[in-house]
Amino acid sequence: MAQVLAVGEAVARIAYLSSDLLISVQTSLSTDSEFSKFLRQYVDNKASSLICSDVPELQHIRHNADPLLSVYQAVRAGKLTTVTTDSSVLIKSIPHLYRLAQYPVVIHVSLHSAGFPDYSDITSIRNVGFTFLQSSSLQEAQDLALTAHALAIRSGKGVIHFFDAANSKADQPIAHESRRLVEEVLDVSLARQYQGMKSEDSSLYVSEGRPQVRDIGLRDTAELVEVKGDSTATSSESSQSSASSSSSDRKNSSGGASEAESATTVDSQAKPVSSEDIDFICESIWSQIRGQTGRKYSAFNYTGPANAESALFLFGSDPGLFAAEFASATQADFFRHVGLVTPVLYRPWLSERLTETLPRSVKRLAVLEQVRRKTTKWGPVLLDVLMTLKASGSQALPTIVGYQLGYLEYTTITQALSGIFQNLLAQSPIQNLEVGQHGGPTPSATSVNNEFQLSQPKLENAYMKILDQLFAERLHIANALGSKNAGVEEQSIKSSPEYGFGSLLARKEHRKRFVSEVEAAAKTRNFTTNSPQKWLSQWALAAADAEKANKLAPEVIQRLSTDGSPAASKLLGSKGLFYKESQWLIGSDAWAYDLGNSGVHHVLASGENVNMLIVDSTPYSERAAQDAARRKKDIGLYAMNFGNAYVASCAVYSSYTQVLQAMLEAEAFDGPSVIMAYLPYNREDDSPLTVLQETKKSVDLGYWPLYRWDPKAEARGEESFKLDSERIKTELQEFLRRDNHMSQLMRRHPQFHAHLSESYGSEVRKVQKRKAKDAYEALLEGLQGAPMTILFASDNGNAENLSKRLARRGKARGLKTVCMAMDDFPLEDLGNEENVVLVTATAGQGEFPQNGRNFWEGVKTSTDLDLANVNMSVFALGDSHYWPRKEDKHYYNKPGKDLFARMLALGAKQIIDIGLGDDQDPDQYQTGYGEWEPKLWDAMGVGNVEGIPDEPPPITNEDIKAASNFLRGTIEEGLQDKSTGAISAADQQLTKFHGTYMQDDRDLRDERKAQGLEPAYSFMIRCRLPGGVATPLQWQQMDAISTELGNETMKLTTRQTFQFHGVVKGKLKPAMQAINQALMTTIAACGDVNRNVMCSSLPELSDLHRDTFHYAKKISDHLLPSTTAYHEIWLKDENDKDVQVAGDAVQDFEPMYGPTYLPRKFKITVAIPPHNDTDVYAHDVGLIAIRGEDGKLMGFNLLAGGGMGVTHNMKKTYPQTGRMFGYVDKDAVHIACEKIMLVQRDNGDRTNRKHARLKYTIDDMGLEEYIRRVEELWGQKFEEPKPFHFDSNIDTFGWQKDEKGMNHFTMFIENGRIEDTADFPMKTGLREIAKVTKGEFRLTGNQHLILSNISAAELDETKALLKKYKLDNTNFSALRLSSSACVAFPTCGLAMAESERYLPELVTKLESTLEENGLRQDSIVMRMTGCPNGCARPWLAEVAFVGKAYGAYNMYLGGGYHGQRLNKLYRASIMEEEILGIMKGLLKRYALEREEGERFGDFVIRAGVVKATREGRDFHDDTAEVEEDE
Ligand code: SF4
């Protein structure tokens, strides 16, 4: 038979069987409570419940997140709800408990035992109206848990079942309560009645609770009333406190009488449940249990002789131990022949039952209450007992003596009992004796139960670290968890704002006294030397000024130390006070709930100069899901209303700089400061990526705006309110201008308010849908012909364009066409449409594109959508080769097929069969579409309409270029348009030539859409930096641009340049101008032109590098476009007439490119052997520097036709390595490059961008022919290539000295991202270095950074700075050092999967395997990209992962170590688990089987894991994963 070993399990099982909803309150979501582990198991196993028809819902809630708030909604919805918790949450939840008592909620409470359990957690809440049951053993826990649930169901009222789990640790295992017994006792049919009675009430504070089901389990009402009449005094104390509870209730609720007290109060109304009812129900439950198990229960438990004269009433732990002591007492013991009473039913307190239980012979009664803090002179249990026995009146009142019980060690129990009974039996017993240790056990006696320690996520340390960085030794945190400063053991006290505030005030007072002492001392002549006086008076003057005081402090201390007088020693006794601390109170978001807010209020109201940092951790998505009742107060607004506090709202994962600023301002502000710091997490072990994404959503959508408010700023002539988050700036500022009263913000702009209403987004969406549809209908009015509604779901625009085209062509045939995204169509209108055509692309793993997902959900799940009058057809777009594995084939065009089938199932009639467009067809999806469309017109009777104008051909990139007037387009106009963050589609193509791409933040797409907002558009700007060499000044300028105009980070790219992200449209022009002021440009950094020319960084050969770099720059300059549009658009100053171009009068001329530029991008790189750190084989032109016999640069071997971009599963596309054209002298090299580019300009494929790169032109034309044409144009010939040799394509980290004695340090910048984090302020460090160094910054092609040309004189200082900012650390695994990733999410529009944000995590997960196999120092080139565009040049890596869908990657193996050989597909669409499995296996084999010096890429080929790819055209052959052709 199954056995139960622990109380947690016994309770969890009964709770599971008896509930619809289980709320598991936990100190940490990543650490189980004693119940949650079992609850989770049952849910995971889908164990059947007796109450819930399905699997009960399990919610895990942190104990500091006001957990009982979650109960309201559920109980109102008729859900039988159970909470499992420790007792630490109870007192804080009193207001909820009063109200929840009116519902059949069961709360199982394990007494919190920080040292020993404190029963005052129970006595303090005894009057909240719940019924309280106590269990003291494993078996009791199971039986009373069942009693609790049955009692809740039968009485309709809340029950708290509490216990000290430690009591039963040594208990023997017990058998499971049989399901049959549980079912019988619970009374399932009665439970069903409750479940069917949904409360209409929707306010948080209800007064009446749920109606009680009266006719079950309770006695006849008449009898009840009669009994009530007799028993008005269940206890006078309880009636008293009921009255007080009632009045407090009224204070909090919006009126109406509270009946919270009804369970313990008797009145003549019929509805409340009386204590007799509870007594009656308990008796009936216990008799059922007794009948089946023989186990007896009653309201009070008595053990001991029936004629005992003394007894002990215990309200505390270990009754079993006490009973055993009594049983084994000898004649010599004071406690021989005594009885023990414990309450089982604690509330309602049934006086009658106690009098029945306690033998009449008892003359003396000791009442032990185990409480940690005593708040009243007489313990509440003592009063209960006293009143009962007094009221019974039938016997002489025994002598009652109260005791406060602390922690009792097992070995001292006899002694303690002797003391208790000796006192009890004394002539005049002493009341309120303390027994046991009140501080709890000494650490050696028992280990403190860690489960109850407040758990905080590691991430939360971010803010602490920043405080630490800013204020270092000056930092004093008054209530830091785990801090020695706190000095109080009780965790909840220690972390409360009140406690910390008190301690801070004391500390300030202390320092104030000290300053007076110093002032006084400065005036005396008590010192041996003269200098202390002078320094002390100086210091005393500056004591309040942190900066001055702290500067003087060491001087003063030093003078005092050498003085040696008693006066000096006295002051030195408090030498820490010479420094002025930065004092902080740190709080969690629990402070923001109603219950924790008073402390914040207290601090604000005091006006004291105290800084508070309140960390809020509610994730945006949790906010959306949570009960509307789970609301927090917005402390920021609250504090601003106070008017005297500095207030800031910040988020470290959104703006690090703003956090720094806020903290410094708060510290400087003379008065209270409140910083609301956001750090959202669902679980304590959330990855930083999740936290980042949640933060972004919150900040972007205004749930967590970033701002700073300084009420004293106005007096200084500054603005008091500064909004630091970009997107709501205008709106909020406008509001502030109109009305400075912040509280109105909540009312009038709900989107700024933390309590953003859940329905807001959907409301907006509905209105928008309706408007869009109405507008169309208005447009169509008056048109003749049949209606046709075209709805599309499109992610890359193809389905949308196709739909719009279909609509135009339909209209031309006389149809009334409407065309919109599926999600913009009101689903409820679908049944009224006559003809519906649905066009959908296929996203991710066969899913609907984003703008059709809600529509599909609606269609899929709707039960009442009647489409009987609808005619429809579907056209689907997909790629039949996208899923190479047979079992995944069904994903091909899955959304379209599903939709078609579902529409038919809902009664729609097909106009024609579904059409399938396949990217693999000769004209891609157009092939299938071309066949399908005419059939549609025929079926709709408009196939033979005469005189239809020809559809204009779709606009191509070539058209855009040609029509752009040398790259002007309407960019200028687009920039002026303030109504959108976007620019037009054509301009998006053109701005690329100017070095900027429009992007949108993909982390935010869904949320913004849900709120009816346009995507979060911003721009990426790429600089042009030939050879990747920047001066220190340029570095500082770039740093400033990223901070002020971008997203505070910079990316060092694989093409050795700076890239900024997150530049919003309004800041685009200032950013471009700032870049130009830094003597850089962005022209032709992207677009169909020659891009930034790369050059090996080569730290060790200075002269050669300088020469080669010179030629790289020369080529770059030579191939620049000539258009003046760049200057005109970005750099013209409204006042600078010189650069203004009048109208269209001035036409540009592009001698080299012509009006349509190149068919595709064109990339040139230079590598200096033996370093192939710029991947010379991967570019359109790759130049290998050749040294002459004099060691100087002589010329270049020229490779051409390399390229990385590929389309998944489109075999016509492939990566390619450059082919050898021959040797060119250095002075002719720029011309050779030009001629190669020109042949490509004239011969590249301008009809298909996927086939337009030079690699295809060369392959199509043939290498010899291409070379011939270049030579013909050039008038010169390539020479035979010179010998060269490459070693690797990675960087050499650490210090190197060149031939001139200059020093170069290559530092590791993971994936090129320059940013500050709390752990690693890298960006700050580099900025500080740039301010002082005379060297230069070289960006490497692997996205790292070389601090170059550091002279011997500068070396020490540079090393110290590198060390200070941890930039000197290159001690990473060789795999990490050799890895690189592209940007991908969130900014890259093409990304299918994470890359830069994920690769570091993946490497971390592989590092233990590397260690195990001794490979930590072995370099393996590993690269990742978010899509097959290949920005991080993955196809040349030894192992590569290329994004296929979110979380899924294609894996490639076998690239050459120095970038000379392409790799080959090994597995398609694999997820992390599989990746790790494969990699771990391969690494192990590599370690065991490799030959001397053999590289990983070579090994996997020799070992037969993959075949070698000889060149691009066999890239798709012999892949390990079979790619089927259909
Ligand atoms: S490889 Fe793809 S996902 Fe990565 S940055 Fe380039 S285009 Fe974006």
UniProtKB/TrEMBL annotation:
Catalyzed reaction equations: hydrogen sulfide + 3 NADP(+) + 3 H2O = sulfite + 3 NADPH + 4 H(+)
Residue segments, region Disordered: 228-271
Involved pathway(s): Sulfur metabolism; hydrogen sulfide biosynthesis; hydrogen sulfide from sulfite (NADPH route): step 1/1
Keyword Metal-binding listed: yes
Keyword Cytoplasm: yes
Gene3D superfamilies found in the cross-reference section: 3.40.50.360, 3.40.50.920, 3.40.50.970, Sulfite Reductase Hemoprotein, domain 1 (3.30.413.10)
Swiss-Prot/TrEMBL cofactor(s): siroheme; [4Fe-4S] cluster
One MF term in the entry's GO annotations: heme binding
GO biological process, one term: cysteine biosynthetic process
EC identifiers of the protein: 1.8.1.2
InterPro entries documented for this protein: CysI (IPR011786), Flavdoxin-like (IPR001094), Flavodoxin/NO_synth (IPR008254), Flavoprotein-like_sf (IPR029039), NiRdtase/SiRdtase_haem-b_fer (IPR005117), Nit/Sulf_reduc_fer-like_dom_sf (IPR036136), NO2/SO3_Rdtase_4Fe4S_dom (IPR006067), NO2/SO3_Rdtase_4Fe4S_prot (IPR045169)
Chief location of this protein within or outside the cell: cytoplasm
Pfam families: Flavodoxin_1, NIR_SIR, NIR_SIR_ferr, POR_N
Domain Flavodoxin-like residue range list: 788-937
UniProt entry keywords in alphabetical sequence: 4Fe-4S, Amino-acid biosynthesis, Cysteine biosynthesis, Cytoplasm, Heme, Iron, Iron-sulfur, Metal-binding, NADP, Oxidoreductase
Subcellular location(s) per record: Cytoplasm
Chain segments annotated as coiled-coil in the UniProt record: none
Record field: compositional bias (Low complexity): 231-263
GO cellular component: cytoplasm; sulfite reductase complex (NADPH)
PROSITE patterns: FLAVODOXIN_LIKE (PS50902), NIR_SIR (PS00365)
Functional note: Catalyzes the reduction of sulfite to sulfide, one of several activities required for the biosynthesis of L-cysteine from sulfate.
Oligomer status and interactors: Alpha(2)-beta(2). The alpha component is a flavoprotein, the beta component is a hemoprotein.
Similarity section: Belongs to the nitrite and sulfite reductase 4Fe-4S domain family.
Protein known as: Sulfite reductase [NADPH] subunit beta
